[in-house]
Amino acid sequence: MREIKFRGKNNEGSWRYGLLTFIFNRYAIAHVENENTVDLIEKESIGQYTGLLDKELNEIYEDDLLDVDYPNGTFLAKVVYELGSFHIVAVKGSIIDYFPKNWNDNVLGLTALHWEQDCTDGNAIDSVKIVGNIHENTSLLEAVE
């Protein structure tokens, strides 16, 4: 069974991980260990776990920023949920610039990266590394504009 969990920032700016719920007219994360304990979170910060890991075995979430290795180097990408699954979007340029044979010039499926590269470490994608997220690392986004 796949693991379904979310992350979100609480009012103090700390990340909370667990089950997404709605309580007291606010979004909240219920702790996995104790579902009776919840942390209210900011709606804008909610991101779902993709079920995949980066090359350092860190969990990849929606809105993460990744360094992605491709045949000619590395590029910065954002994790999005689109077309019914998780994809990466190039922060600068188009996915086609980096993966010319991709079927879509806007997105590349995370699972496609995993399967096409014959990744051998379970759910880890050997060619990506989490370098931040869009909520805390806006300087990474500004640096490529």
From TrEMBL:
According to its UniProt entry, this protein's organism is: Carnobacterium maltaromaticum
Q: Record's SUPFAM superfamilies?
A: YopX-like
Q: Which domain of life is it from?
A: Bacteria
- The YopX protein domain is annotated at 5-142
Protein name, as recorded: YopX family protein
